[in-house]
User: Fold this.
Amino acid sequence: MIDFLAAGGAGGSSGLIGFLPIIGIFIIFWFFLFRPQMKRQKEHAAKVAGLKKNDKVVTAGGLVGKVTKVDDDYCEIELAKDVRVKAVKGTIGDIIDPGAKPAAND
Assistant:
């Protein structure tokens, strides 16, 4: 009977030790996957919130243009002379730095 109780007590703690790899994997995912993604989302939201007239932008669809008008939810982008589109601010992929060179076409 004593052997039975000793075996039962050891089995309970081994069940807890069995969860340690799962907890470790969650911690690894948190630090290498979730935290950097949340940081990028915050940086992108700050960029979009600071959007102003005459900024050059790239939309999520790949259109490149200059912002001509900014609203709370929308911005007007001039793609070419007299070609303007209204875009949702959330679809702005990136703001191009004024001194940046365009990519070379191959």
